[in-house]
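Appendix B. Raw example, untouched.
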Amino acid sequence: MANPIGNSDGATELTLGVNWYWNRFFKIQFNYEHSWFDQSVQLGPAAKNLIKFDDALLTRFALVF
């Protein structure tokens, strides 16, 4: 189903995160993720859309009741 030409054989990821417990019922979590690909990955039909790494900033809110 996936096209092997536009995909990488492997990747390495680094994640840094911070949890903040506002009180015992509410938590906020911040994560930064950086990924390195073994081969460049194509994100679209143009040749300029090749990427060698990817970054993400994620936020999560949790409410316990």
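End of appendix B.
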